[in-house]
Amino acid sequence: xxxxxxxxxxxxxxxxxxxxxxxxxxxxxxxxxxxxxxxxxxxxxxxxxxxxxxxxxxxxxxxxxxxxxxxxxxxxxxxxxxxxxxxxxxxxxxxxxxxxxxxxxxxxxxxxxxxxxxxxxxxxxxxxxxxxxxxxxxxxxxxxxxxxxxxxxxxxxxxxxxxxxxxxxxxxxxxxxxxxxxxxxxxxxxxxxxxxxxxxxxxxxxxxxxxxxxxxxxxxxxxxxxxxxxxxxxxxxxxxxxxxxxxxxxxxxxxxxxxxxxxxxxxxxxxxxxxxxxxxxxxxxxxxxxxxxxxxxxxxxxxxxxxxxxxxxxxxxxxxxxxxxxxxxxxxxxxxxxxxxxxxxxxxxxxxxxxxxxxxxxxxxxxxxxxxxxxxxxxxxxxxxxxxxxxxxxxxxxxxxxxxxxxxxxxxxxxxxxxxxxxxxxxxxxxxxxxxxxxxxxxxxxxxxxxxxxxxxxxxxxxxxxxxxxxxxxxxxxxxxxxxxxxxxxxxxxxxxxxxxxxxxxxxxxxxxxxxxxxxxxxxxxxxxxxxxxxxxxxxxxxxxxxxxxxxxxxxxxxxxxxxxxxxxxxxxxxxxxxxxxxxxxxxxxxxxxxxxxxxxxxxxxxxxxxxxxxxxxxxxxxxxxxxxxxxxxxxxxxxxxxxxxxxxxxxxxxxxxxxxxxxxxxxxxxxxxxxxxxxxxxxxxxxxxxxxxxxxxxxxxxxxxxxxxxxxxx
Length: 715
Hints:
- The chain is mostly helical and 715 residues long.
- It is built from 24 helices and 11 strands.
- The strands form 5 sheets. Strands 7-6-8 form a 3-stranded antiparallel beta sheet. It has a two-stranded antiparallel sheet with strand order 1-2.
- The protein is elongated.
- The termini are far apart.
- Residues 13-71, 80-89, 100-110, 133-176, 510-519 and 686-715 have low confidence and may be disordered.
């Protein structure tokens, strides 16, 4: 009986929470500045199937007997203060050192996130307009719109008449006012196939009636003058609906310099690799995702590809948000290619994508009906206008600004894709050139002025970074200070350089570069032996951020070969300072990597006497062997030769707890030149400790040449 009452009480609490939540949405769609109510300790479980339509306030479950008196509603108290785990009140919590985290993880820096205030305000409104419903509740607005027919025919999208609206398990559309339906039917339709689903209508009401919604709409309508005409012209020229321009607005707020937390950037929010895939240059000097023209060219291609794949603009826009792979998987899973149907299934598509298409449709309707939303008298920003000129590669923007007689900041605003304040340098032969935007009407004067300029910077020249290079090595090679190199190229302290990156270096130091590896450089290889009659062996020292895939690509070998040649774990990361053995074609082009030639290094086989002699010699030690006598232990032998018991365990690969037998041979490291060092040399490692001498050659037959001879014991 007590368990039944508890279940009834829990159902009543959930009902009250649901009704309060629905009330909050109805009375004030925008979030209030007051402190929110405390969240429950654990979220309510999601229903296994879409919940049926319920009354505005659901009743408790009828499975258990109802008590005589209903539980009185409790007053909502203040949110409890969250106690600090270890810090006293008022002490600011420490923040992680992101640069240190990148160094530990051996990854480079990422673009700094830049947010758009209107997009952030809309995200906050989403959480109030579309709260995820509790089980058994159906919060939301109601609308007097026609229900779908039993057997709906083909929809007409551009007639101005809203199509039939299907029921949405997350919304209550059972009742509404005739004036709302009449107002909605009076709206002009954009050239997208808008379907007036409940979520679209809720956004329309938000932009029409809510103060925050009105403010967002006014800002966007004002900003639309800057790019919309140009973007619509590009979309129309490509044969796409011109109102896809509002997808760009929802992505970026038409802020060309915006960067998402994940690293997507620009008007169309391309990720770096996706941008490169669609022809955008993305490197440390230039990032064309920030260039409205070039990014729009890429977006046109991408949206065209998505539409060809799915055949529906709703699905194409959804794929733009969640990725075409995830959307294809959802379509196959639920066996429907109707976007609105996928929105209704539990775990059908991401919640963000469920709201994404309605957001675009709603903004398209708002901008097509400015008078209905109180925007008709709003003065819009002037359209972006500029001239283009041809400038020499590597020319600083400040010099172009001097010729144009404008502040450098003006050129930076017109060329947000030029990341480091100059035309990207080029390592190609001849006078490389690139286009730069200047204020409208300045092209002729700037072109004439640039023609009078001397060489771009006669004291500097470009160099191409090779795989294995880092700023310190390049500075040392060129005989310049690293700080000067960093200042000239605006290098970050923790920045790693990709192979192929172009840097500028002083010409006067260019001849100071020492070629090849440093004298006496040591390379350690695996005891496994490989020989190829038609290949040569080279070595590459791993740098921070290197990956197996990139190294294999540069040296035109397979990843499996690199793993076999170097006894690597395919699941582990490469550690900076490791030297990899690589077998390449004799005439392979290795100009893109800093290679250690076999003739310029000292090669040591790991675990051999020469190996130990070299590395222990660096520490002033010599490796010798001793015989245990009756009563000896690892600890006593270690004390005799000045070694800790931990080192004795580590060197001899045996526990200190294991009893020593008289005559057992043990290895110790002693100071070079001491009496002990002259008395007894150490033997070579036992045969069982080393792998087989010869391994099959990857991708071919084992070499007929035998492996290295078995190391003999010293002395």
